[in-house]
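Cross-posted from the bioinformatics board.
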Amino acid sequence: LEFNRLLQEIRERREEALKLYYEKYREAFISWGKQHFDCDIPTLMDVYQSSWIILYRKIVSGELKNINTSIDKYIFGISWRLLIRHKRVAKRVHYFEDLSNFTEFTDDPLLTTIISDELNNEMITLLRRTIENLGEPCKKILTLFYFDGYDTEEITEKLQYLNKNTTSAMKARCLTRLKDLMKKPNL
Amino acid sequence: MKPLDQNIIDLIIKHLDKSLNADESVLFNQLLNENPAFQKELSAYKHAVTAIQLDKYYTLKSILQVEEKRITALKPIYTYKRWAVAASLLLALISVFLWLKPYQSNLKNEKLLTDFYSEPYSARWLSISKGGMEDIQEQYYRATFGEANYRKLRQGWGHYLAERYAESATIFSSFNIANDTFLLARGNAYLMSNKPEKAIVDFMNIVENNGSVNKDAAEWHLIGAYIKNNQIKEAKNLATKIAQTSKHNYNKNAMRLLEKM
């Protein structure tokens, strides 16, 4: 029930719901994080934010339709992946054995990218600048499709394009343009 | 390297969009296994998709960072207020408790006195006839204190028997008579006129007089004086002693009193 409400609210209210749920489970997360990891609060909050975004994307993209645990434990599971693989700050090894059933996050592409050693601040800045250079409506179409889980029909309706084919063609052109922009080393 | 034609690009995009049909999947896998240019192009497109996802990820991250700042900025005030309210409530509760405690304690003590010490209040136990002092060595008092003081003493007895304990205590306090019956009466007059500390002295003087016939009564009333004076520990100790002495005149009274204490 709790998860269904989260699912519904995030689909309807998007980022506003994300903020509400972020605050709702924040104290519980800090308490859990302090108990199990040797890291400061800013690091914990950074991970907590990432975890919510990953969960958010899974929900809005339609990848996640149900969970077999509570929301807070699900968030703890994602956070654990982020902390253990990226930070190595675990206090208690046995705790991770308890969370070993959270294997579903191992293959999450966004999570894998975030914790990748190759991703540094310089790269992030470059990448975001490239997206800015891509401009609108490409950025909007691609974000709606590849992050928010909208299909071409929904994008057509949302951005008031002529039809699905127009949207689909535009999306393909935008992606190709972005790919080309990313090849340019000075961006 | 020769650029890939549009059909191949479409194939890559369809793969990224998870919309390849069976034939297209076969072709896709074939190209992936055999064509390095295709592999490179696929990788470039995948990076583009990842870039879009990361851009939105960092946008959301900024939103949550702002949210985090908002929460932490509010938190100290909120926490301070919460603690302040809690502390105020706690202080108020403690104050009420401390304010009520003596009253509650007094109420309990008064209940015990009413339940167990109605006898001295009515003074029926005194072996004197109403209005007279025959049984307390009338001749001795006349000779010792003189007629004027004797009349005063009789007036005190009159007040006592009429249950005007404050008046009788005032008159009795001006006499220094080493007589157990007098001391018992005066002790009760003190007890009833809310001067338990003085009552304790009179009762203890009787108790320390081993030969006194009023010793048991004095001990029993001493408990009452202790209760009135909020010396509960002393009252319990003495009541326990009496309760353990089967021959004591107030043995059963002491047992019942201990149950109530």
